[in-house]
Amino acid sequence: MPAKICGLTTAATLDAALGGGASHVGFVFFAPSPRNLDFDAAPALTARVPDHVAKVGVFVDPDDGLLEQAVAVAALTVLQLHKVAPARAAAIRARFGLETWTAVAVKARGDLDVARTFTGAADRILYDAKTPPGAALPGGMGLRFDWSLLDGFAHPLPWALSGGLDAGNVAEAIARTGAPLVDVSSGVETAPGVKDVDKIAAFLKAARS
Ligand SMILES: O=C(O)c1ccccc1NCC(=O)[C@H](O)[C@H](O)COP(=O)(O)O
Asked: What CA–CA distance (Å, rounded) separates 76 from 72?
């Protein structure tokens, strides 16, 4: 079962994700996040990732300079964009030539309409829970949305399920939604930004079960 462990900042927790069989590992480049990865630390950390595992950079409305620097220091293979309009996602995708994901924040069924606007502009939709107005982060808050909102939705692009997943609910989430890829951050932490090797292993095992 393809799974992304997001917000990794240490070798031990990255190795736990790789050892547990993660298909994707995520690195956040957003200064306000407790998971922000320093440019100085990125090369040594991301060099541990074998070629068959995707290195996903997570960005919030990034400018080209930030993207260029992050792609260079972390040898990213996927760009995950939050708070980016379709035209900007298309421009980033064209400029960098990398697989490009866009996060779609979901609270109500109507929020899914946004996904369709990314056809031709992104390669994958990451459905994530909508964070409250004024929240510090647009993701990584451990919030779950009502999975039944995805019932019968004709996905316009390949997709992934995110938001409030953990070892205790990921198998049900996959069974309930048919998600082809799952993504987690808070659910494998002991505190915001503090990943736990045992929780990572348990999540990946549960996702496979
Ligand atoms: O994780 C962050 O700190 C973050 C900051 C800014 C934008 C996005 C961020 N995370 C995006 C992710 O892909 C998370 O894995 C996803 O939102 C799920 O998070 P969680 O509900 O905590 O598992």
From this structure: 8
